[in-house]
Amino acid sequence: MSVIDLMKKDRYETPKTPVAFEVTNLNNFVYDMQHCIKCKGCYWVEHTYNPGVKFNTRCPSNLWNDFDAYGAMGKMRIGLAIESGKLEWTDKLLEIIYADPLCGACDVACKRNLDLEIGLTLEALRIKAVDDGAGPMPAHKKIAQNVATTQNQYGTSESRVKWLTKDIQVAEKAEVIYYVGCSSAYANPGIAQATAKIFNAAGVSFMLMKDEKCCGNTLYSGGMVKEAKAIALENIAAVKASGAKTLVTSCAECYRTWKVDYPKLLDIATADLGFEVIHLIEFADQAVADGKLKLTKPVDLRFTYHDACGVSRLCDPWTPYKGERGWMGMIFPGLRRRRGRHGLYGQARNVLKAIPGAEFVELIRIRENAFCCGAGRGTKEAFPELAKFSANHRLDEVKAVGAEVIVSACPRCNSNFAQVAKEDGDNVKVMDISELILASIEV
Ligand code: SF4
Ligand code: SF4
Question: What are phi and psi of 117, to 5 degrees?
């Protein structure tokens, strides 16, 4: 028998183990946790891209706390020990697991070499913490309580459409539905107004959800999967009942939740949601290309763009998968891994480069290598000092490239950067992409 035949025999006769990616079972990720070789590739930006010694890291959690426990490699070992019963939850372990914006940088980095599902493992670890009665953090419990009582994460009884001004035209019935989200509805009304005005300027009729509710992003991110699933079912049913064909968000976190987390929770494909989920970035890119949106008004500023995680490496569509792992860890049938390649990197830049009069300069860490602002997935509420540290580090990068303004496509990034810049007396200004687009439209 030839060596090739022996290898084939081995490949087909090696006992197979089932492979599944349901995040409700940490045991599904034992292989991934066991095969982390602690190379720390998840900490550094791509080696082939490494921009030098200053801005070359990608893990906010591990940069904030030097102990490797805070990096993905540490959390893989903690997860393994928790799953095998060798370690019990403590306050310190919970801090390590939750002081983390789940930004996905480690996931795309690790897949460069090993194809391990690090991001899903981190989510499964939080779900396990909640199942075991240890998680989530008190701040996340408070948000869950707010959502249950007021349908928004801030716990306010104010109107959710307070942002809606008289000059904005909203249709009763339309193919496009704008899902505003708690952060734009309450904390960043300027983003909701700018988005609605962009629809109006493009001549695209849109409606709002009747009694819009929180998307449940923080609940899912905190590991409260049962509550998040109930919200997903309710929200999806509401969109289907509205008859909308396309749901547009202006928030990177809502976008990821609708497009990826809902299908993941319901074990369906993104394509089977029954409607399309897009971000304003995609809408604007298409509208500019079709000539519906005319960016003609010069905007005199030098700006840079922050690739928010939810519209970048975290938004590859979800497809359910079940298979088997055999020889050399290979899995069958073949799996199309989620590597962050569906990020809206190009679409955002198409729009930004079309803004007349403005000078666009790139940050040092961009696209899959972008450094998270540190606010997302309930991090700012539970660990404000980590969110501040991350934003500060990113603002240093903005200053290093000489930009006056940092533009993002997420109200969570927006609030975090703005608060930190104000507290530290930075003269970097913060804008949302919707606000910059609106500034360049003659309305
Ligand atoms: S998680 Fe992946 S990239 Fe990070 S240390 Fe482990 S094997 Fe290396
Ligand atoms: S998700 Fe982001 S912050 Fe968390 S371990 Fe991975 S790179 Fe670090």
Answer: -90, 75
CA atoms of 106 and 118, how far apart (whole Å): 7
Residue 4 included in any domain: no
* Any domain includes 63: yes
- pLDDT > 70: what percent of the chain? 97
CA distance 159 to 141: 23
Q: Tell how far the Cα of 374 is from the centroid of ligand 2, in angstroms.
A: 10
Closest to 163 measured CA to CA, from 183, 143, 149, 148 = 183
429 pLDDT more than 80:
yes
Ligand 2 centre distance from Cα of residue 427 (Å): 28
Would you state the pLDDT for residue 405? 97
Query: What would the pLDDT profile of 85-125 be if each residue is shown by its tens digit?
Result: 999 999 999 999 999 999 999 999 999 888 999 999 999 99
Task: With respect to residue 1, please indicate whether it lies within any of the assigned structural domains.
Answer: no
**Residue 302 DSSP label:** E
- Give residue 107 CA to ligand 1 midpoint distance, Å: 8
CA 123 to CA 127: how far, in whole Å?
Answer: 6
Q: Which atom of ligand 2 is nearest to the CA of 75?
A: 5
Q: Which ligand sits nearest to residue 102's alpha carbon?
A: 2
- Tell me the DSSP string of 132-165: TT--S-HHHHHHHHHHHHHSSTT---S-TTTT--
pLDDT band at 52 (very low <50, low <70, confident <90, very high): confident
Distance from Cα 265 to the centre of ligand 2, integer Å: 21
The answer to whether 350 touches 295, Cβ cutoff 8 Å, is no
For a substitution probing ligand 2, which of 106, 221, 372, 390 has the most ligand atoms within 8 Å of its CB? 106
pLDDT value at position 197? 98
Read off the pTM.
0.95
Q: Is residue 187 part of a domain?
A: yes
DSSP string, 46-84: PTTT---SSS-B--HHHHHS-SGGGSHHHHHHHHHHHHT
Domain count, the chain: 1
Judged against a pLDDT cut of 80, whether residue 4 lies above it is answered with no
Distances 131 to 24, 92, 125, 223, 387 between C-alpha atoms, Å: 9, 18, 10, 8, 26
Domain span including residue 156? 11-439
Residue burial 231-262, b: 16+ Cβ < 10 Å; e: rest? bbeebbebbeebebebbbbbbbbbbbbbbbbb
Strand partners, 19: 323
The residue type found at 231 is I
For ligand 1, atom 1: residue with the closest CA? 73
* Cα–Cα distance, 382 to 222 (Å, whole number): 10
